[in-house]
Amino acid sequence: MTAKFDPFAAAPAQMKSWMTTSMAIAGSLEPTLVSLVEVRASQINACANCLHMHTTEARQKGETEQRLYLLSAWREAPCYTERERAALAWTEALTQLSEGHAEIDRARAALNDYFSKEEQVKLTLMINIINGWNRLAVGFGLWFEPAAAKPAQAAA
Fold first, then answer.
1. Rg, C-alpha atoms of the chain
2. Burial status of residue 66 (CB atoms within 10 A of its CB: 0-12, 13-18, 19 or more)
3. Whole-angstrom distance, CA of residue 103 vs CA of residue 89
4. What gap in Å lies between CA 50 and CA 23, rounded to an integer?
């Protein structure tokens, strides 16, 4: 890892807890959906670190190049399921809260059609987690190589 400031060294107990929570929440939904959420939120937040990490991981999990390349234009691309579209709309609405709440009701309605109440909470937590990682990575200038991140995750 390279960083302007290393939060793992500065607050190891809290960062270990954050990593453990992140992994538990990510493991509560299907891996492909988690990857799409991670990448889309990271695109919106312009987090190069997370884009690099999560696109690499998505490919390793079997995600296609087409779906990764088209993610920023998911509304127009025919390669996403309705469930994925609902998750992406919810991701965008929550990630862009500072731009207004106009999309929240529409995104929530789509969410109700494709996700149970429990899944809605899990997805919302996942969106919060990736937005938190984006802020840590951008704020502290973090850069992880995906191969180096696996030992850190295993240690958590």
1. 15
2. exposed
3. 8
4. 15
Query: What's the predicted TM-score (pTM) here?
Result: 0.91
According to CATH, what is the number of the domain 23-155?
Answer: 1.20.1290.10
Residue range 63-100, pLDDT digits in tens = 999 999 999 999 999 999 999 999 999 999 999 999 98
Return all residues near 7 (Cβ < 8 A) that are at least 6 apart.
15, 136, 140, 142
Q: What is the DSSP letter of 103?
A: T
Structure tokens at 67: 């779906």
Extents of the domains making up the chain = 23-155
**C-alpha closest to that of 45 among 68, 72, 10:** 72
Q: Where are the alpha helices (DSSP H) in 80-145?
A: 82-95, 104-114, 117-140
Q: Who's near 37: CB < 8 A, 6+ residues apart?
A: 87, 88, 91, 123, 126, 127, 130
Provide the sign of the torsion angle of the four alpha carbons 96, 134, 124, 27, taken in this order: positive
